[in-house]
Amino acid sequence: MELIALTEMNALPESCVSAILSFVSPAEVCLLSLVSSTFLSAANSDVVWARFLPSDHVDIVSPAASPVEFSSEKELFLWLCQRPLLVDGGRKSFKLERSSGIISYVLSARELSINRSDDLAHWIWKTLPESRFKEVAELRTIDRLQIEGSIKTKALSPNTLYGAHLIFKVSDRAFGLDLMPLETSIEMGGWVRQGTARLQHPDQKKRHLEGLMYANRLEMVRKHWEAEGDHRGGGGVPSERGDGWMEVEVGEFLVGSGGEGDGEVRMSLREVKGYQLKGGLVVEGIEVRPKSLVQ
Q1: pLDDT by residue (tens digit) across 271-286?
Q2: Residue 214 — very low, low, confident or very high, per pLDDT cuts 50/70/90?
Q3: HSE toward the beta carbon, residue 59, CA cutoff 13 A
Q4: Three-state secondary structure readout of the chain
Q5: What residues contact 15, with CB distance under 8 A and at least 6 apart?
Q6: How many Cβ atoms are within 10 Å of 23's Cβ, its own excluded?
Q7: Per residue in 104-131, pLDDT tens?
């Protein structure tokens, strides 16, 4: 039946084949381009690839930090899949997922709200060659850690389950980051999902030594966590990325078929109950990327 349908489609005008191909995924278009010369020509049409680009792609690409040169919609699509594009004055990174065309963003540390980040006694801003952004934030020392970010849902792809991930590093001089988990939160409209996350896998020997200093205070906080544990989402653990950074999931959220209008997603990580000093955290940003496409 499928073979008969493809044979019948092959007899259609190229413009009709292009219109049909615009309703399948980019991965399927590449596969169908192998069927015949008619399919190959139709699969390279701007009609097809314009469908996989965001409707506001001109507004996204035009003011980009680096110029994007392309001769076709397909070429632009592949360019945006192969490398992140710095947008909004270099404060965000934009990219498309190759097989589906789904949008991803990374919000730089400068785009986030980080408590006391303007105080050199607590944070310093520095340049790292391995970062996609001009600056990253390095924590010197602080007792209350709060990192928050937000993004408009209309900037993301509809019918998509997204995950938000903190991108970070831990310096060799880090301290206090593995004593207590962070509270995480994802908010969208009236919907809230809470959880926990760790920036480091617990070092038992180090925790024991630091625990001697904060014993009573930590015991009270841990009892609080145990009491609330059943009411919060699962705890995220750090993992290595392919770009040399670490990441931990903040949470997930669903963008519906309408893109949720002018809605906004707010993401946060906090450790404000232990009050112990911590330092050595290097923040690159928060990545918002697809987990799955909802049918």
Answers
A1: 877 678 999 999 999 9
A2: low
A3: 4
A4: CHHHHHHHHHCCCHHHHHHHHCCCCHHHHHHHCCCCHHHHHHHCCHHHHHCCCCCCHHHHHCCCCCCCCCCCHHHHHHHHHHCCEEECCCCEEEEECCCCCCEEEEEEHHHCEECCCCCCCCEEEECCCCCCCCCEEEECCECCEEEEEEEEHHHCCCCEEEEEEEEEEEEEEEECCCCCCEEEEEEECCEEEEEEECCCCCCHHHHHHHHHHHHHHHHHHHHHHHHHHHHCCCEECCEECCCCCEEEEEEEEEECCCCCCCCEEEEEEEECCCCCCEEEEEEEEEEEEEEEECC
A5: 42, 47
A6: 10
A7: 999 999 999 999 999 999 999 999 999 9
Q: What is the C-alpha separation between 56 and 52, in angstroms, rounded?
A: 12
Residue appearing with tokens 């408009």:
152
